[in-house]
Amino acid sequence: MKESLQHLFTHDEKPFLLGAELVTTRGIILQEDSRKISGFAEALCEDDRLDWISITDNAGGNPMLSPDHLGRKVLEAGKHPIIHITCKDRNRNALESQAWQYASEGLDNLLVLTGDYPVNGFNGIAQPVFDLDSVGLLQMLNDLNNGLRIRGRRPNTYLNLNSTDFFLGCAVSPFKLTEAEQYMQYAKLRMKIEAGAKYIIPQLGYDMRKSHELITWLKANNLDIPVIGNIYRLTAGVARIFNKGLIPGCVVSDDLLARIDKEKKADDKGKSFFIDLAARQYAAFKLLGYRGAYIGGVEKYDDFSAIVDKAVEYKDADWTDLQDGLVNPQKSEFHMYEKLADGPLAGLTDAARPAPALSTEAPRERELKKRDKREVTGLYRFSRLLHNLVFDYEAPLFHAMRKLFVFLEKHPKLGEASYFNERMSKGALFECRECGDCSLADITYLCPQSQCAKNERNGPCGGSLAEACEVTKNGKECIWVRAYHRKRAYGEDPASLLNRPPVIKNNDLSGTSGWANCFLLRDHNAFLRNQQSTKRETK
Questions:
Q1: Which pLDDT belongs to residue 178?
Q2: Which of 38, 100, 99 is nearest to 74 (CA)?
Q3: How do strand 80-86 and strand 52-55 relate by DSSP bridges?
Q4: CB–CB of 171/202 below 8 Å?
Q5: CA 531, CA 294: separation in Å to the nearest integer?
Q6: Burial environment of residue 503 by CB neighbours within 10 A (0 to 12, 13 to 18, 19 or more)
Q7: What pLDDT, on the 0 to 100 scale, is given for residue 412?
Q8: Burial of 223 (0-12, 13-18, 19+ CB in 10 A)
Q9: CB of 439 within 8 A of CB of 447?
Q10: Are 337 and 213 in contact (CB under 8 A)?
Q11: N or C: which end of the chain has fewer CB within 10 A?
Q12: What are the pLDDT digits (tens) for 74-94?
C-alpha cells in the first residue's frame, strides 16, 4: 500500500514534494468545460512526479461541482487528493456530515478554509453561512480525529464516536500590507496549529521575501510544521485582477504588474515569462526550506509539465541566480523581519533581527500612535472599565450581578425588562444583533456578528485589502485591525486576543440576554472555562 500523504509530508524520503490544483466547474461532468477538467485530472494522475492533487470547494464564491467527485477519481487512480473544505455554504451540522462522508470514502486529506464570500448563485447571490470559521472547523475535525464525544439518547449519558484519520491543513497570508494585518495573520496561524492544522498552504503572492518571512516566523516560534509554496501561473489578465484586489487574498504588486505589461507584448503574449516565473518560484521555495510546491492557474497538462520541466533547469541554482523577478514588494508594506544586507539570501529576511510588533522606527511609530489614539474612543475606555468591574469572572461585582440575574431568572417580567434595556443600550452602542453569546470582550468591544461579514470570532480572514474588509467594498476597516490598534494603545500584545481556545458561538442562545448568559454561566466563556477545568483535572 502506498504511504499516506501525512507520511510524505512529515518524512524526508522525498526531499521536495509536488502538488497541483484542480478548480472544478459549474455544471455536470459531461459538459465540455467539466470534461476538460476531468481529462486534465487523468493526465496529472499519470505523472509520476506528482504527489497529490488539490481540489477546490466553490472557488471564488461561485457554485461549482463538489470536490469529492474528482477526489474519488484521483484516489482511484492512485494519487493523493487534498479536498478543500470551507465554511461559507454549510453550517456545522452539514460540515460534520460532509466530514463523515469524506472519512468513509478515504478522502482523509483536507485543506480547511473559511472560504470566499459568495458572489454568485441561482437567481442572485447566495446567503452565506459562516456558522463556523476555519479555526472552529479545524477544532471540530480535530475532535473527530480524537473520537467525538456526543450526548446519548438517555439523559446524562455520553458516547464516543469512532475516530477519523484526517490530515488537516490550513492557509495564511504572508503578503499583507500593514503591520496590523500581518501580525494578526500570524497570531491566527498559531491558533490554527493549536486547533489541529498539520501543514500550511499559504495564500497567493509574488514576493519571496514575504514567503521567507513565513518560514522565519515559524522557526522563531518553534513551530515545526511543513509549508507548501503556492504557485499560480499568471496571465496578464489575471495579474491585473490580482493587482486590483478583486480576488481576496491574491496579491500582485504594482512593480510586478508593470513588468508583466512589458512582457505581454512579446510574440507569445508573455507565456514563456509566466512559465519561467513559476519555475523560479518552484526552485526558490525548495531553496528556502519549503516542504514542497503547489501549482495552480493551469488547465492543461502541457502547461503544468512545462513549469516542472523548466524548474529542472534551476535545480542547482542559488538565490543570486533566482532572485530576478521574485522580490516584488507593495509600496510602504510592513515586514516582520529586517532585510539581510548580504550573504546567500541577501534581500530576504534576517531571523536574528525581528521587526518588533510595537515599532521603534520614529516616523512609523508616530503614524501608528495616531491610529491607536483614533481607535481608543470614550466608549472603548468605558467598556474596558465596566468589564473589569462587572463582567470578568474575577471582577469585584461579578458575584453580586450573578445573584441579581439568578433573581431575574425567577421573575420573568423583570427579566424581560432587563433584556429590553440590554437590547436598547447594546444596539445603540455596539450594533448588537442579539446573538446571546457575546464576543464583544473577545474583540475589544467590536461586534463580529454585525461588523464582520464572515462573523470571524477567532481572528481575521485572509481577504482584507489594505486593512479594508474584502466584502463591503466601501473601505470599511477590518475589526481585527481595529482591535490590534486598541490593544497596542494600552501597551498590550495584540496576539493576546487569540491566545485562547477557539470561540464557537452557541446558536441556542440567539435572541436571549447576553448579560444573563454571562452571569448564569451559559455562554462560550463558561464552556471554555469548564473545558480548561476538565483538562486540568484529567492531568
A1: 94
A2: 38
A3: parallel
A4: yes
A5: 38
A6: buried
A7: 95
A8: middle
A9: yes
A10: yes
A11: N
A12: 999 999 999 999 999 999 999
Let me know how long the chain is: 539
Query: Concatenated DSSP letters for 98-136?
Result: HHHHHHHTT--EEEEE--PPP---TTSPPPP--SS-HHH
* Upper half-sphere CA count for residue 410 (Cβ side, 13 Å): 5
CA distances in angstroms from 162 to 103, 104, 147, listed in the order given: 11, 11, 5
The residues with which 294 forms a beta bridge, in sequence order, are: 19, 230
Low-confidence ranges of the chain (pLDDT < 50): 1, 358, 538-539
- Among 285, 168, 277, 295, residue whose Cα is nearest residue 215: 285
DSSP structure class, residue 290: -
CA nearest neighbour of 279 among 249, 310, 304 = 310
**pLDDT of 533:** 59
Residue recorded with cell 503572492: 205
Rg of the chain over Cα atoms, rounded to whole angstroms, equals 24
Encode pLDDT of 133-185 as tens digits: 999 999 999 999 999 988 888 888 888 899 999 999 999 999 999 999 999 99
End-to-end CA distance of the chain: 38
Delimit the domains of the chain by residue range.
5-339, 364-538
Q: Are 388 and 380 in contact (CB under 8 A)?
A: no
Which of helix, strand or coil describes residue 396? coil
What's the pLDDT score for residue 1? 45
Q: Which amino acid, one-letter code, is at 315?
A: K
Quick one: pLDDT at residue 351? 82
- Whole-prediction pTM: 0.94
